[in-house]
Amino acid sequence: MLEAKSRDDWPAYFETLARNRLYFEVLRDKAEGWVLNTYSVFGHDPRVPGGRIWAVYSEGMLPAPEPHRVFDWRELGWFAETWTPDFPQMIVINPGSPCEAFLPAVPPHSHAWVQYAKRTEGPSDQAALRTLRVGGPLHGPVAHGLACGAHLIVHQGRPWNALAYHGHGYRSERRMLRKSWGITSHQEWQAQMHALLTTDSTIPLWEFALGLRLAIARDSGGDVETGHWRDAAAGVLRARAEGGIVLTPDGVTKTAPVPEAETEARIQGVQHHIGRITRYEARMRADGILGEGQYVTSADAWYLGRASCMARWGMSTRYCELPEAEAAVIQAGHSAARSYQSWQDFSVGFILGRCLQFDNDKFGSWYEDMVTVHRILMSDPGSPWLNIPFR
């Protein structure tokens, strides 16, 4: 927009507006009630006759999130369709910025700019690498932690380094956390964040199987045959089932024997996951995102990547404030660096975890979408994965 404005290319300016989400401030109490009505907050600008304006922001120019100030978004054409005589007569795009523009909202004057909305494709959720050059970290621990959440953020075409995040707007973000995560409060957000950062939600069978293979590989110094992996898993589980003294993170613990039927069911479950893991790894090798002879060491990335995103979602829903979100992002980055050797290793761990949870061996969109994002992040010159050291 700034480039178009600087050369007085207003058609290009309006076309850019039409292709992007345009955010506006809304009344928080009405937005929280999920009521679809007029709940906009209007502003004041002494340069406009009468002073009243409708302040509208493009995504990269949004104000930093504040506890009692929230935003929704619509496409460009919506502002003309929604306007009524009791609204301000002037819409101001990115007020106070170099790419500021004044749009008359009163018909027929609005016809001069609304035509671009009618003939221009609107905002897209297509995967794309976008970066905030101002207002978002590009290097350092916060940027590293945000880059750990890049799978989902780039998949949605949002700026990967926006910690001061508004997402799909306050109401939609709250609806998403409520429906997908059961989060409706700061305390619930904190609990879910803790679970993701500590990988408490990890399905034990996944990590048991992956950890066992890693231990075998370290001991043998070579490849691990699938049959040997399966037999070793059965052997370890049967030995554990006999009970006895074991060392746990809490100290020495005495365990009781486990019934044979329960042990055999657990063995079948682990061996089933071993089969799934090997199939996904074979597909990732065929697609060129996992090297020949390489394998996934852990699926913890699936939890740490979402923890990075959860920090942003906490900001967009006002379930947390910036210091808490920033600390969570940094912790996610530190945990990732302890668990993995590189962005490549982290990425395939994230993809495997996502597929084990959702894809059901279909190699559908749960898999394909992440392969697309992986290729973008491993090849685009502007990718944080190519510009931020993993460790």
Number of separate helices: 17
Shape: elongated
Count the E strands.
Answer: 8
Distance between the termini: 37 Å
Strand content: 5-15%
Structural class: alpha+beta
From the alpha carbons, calculate the radius of gyration and give it in angstroms: 25 Å
Unreliably modeled segments: none
**Helix percent band:** 40-55%
Please state the average pLDDT score.
91
Q: Sheet bearing the most strands, described?
A: 6 strands, mixed
Order of helices and strands: HHEHEEEHEEHHHHHHHEEHHHHHH
Total domains, how many? 3
Question: What would your notes on this structure say?
Answer:
The protein has 391 residues and is α+β, with helices and mostly antiparallel strands. It folds into three domains: 2-119, no CATH class; 141-201 and 300-387, no CATH class; 204-286, no CATH class. Helices cover 51% and strands 9% of the residues. Strand 7 and strand 8 (251-255) form a beta hairpin. It has 17 helices and eight strands. The strands form two sheets. Strands 1, 2, 3, 4, 5 and 6 form a six-stranded mixed beta sheet that branches. Strands 7-8 form a two-stranded antiparallel sheet.
Distinctive features:
391 residues; alpha+beta; 3 domains; two-stranded antiparallel ribbon; 17 helices; elongated
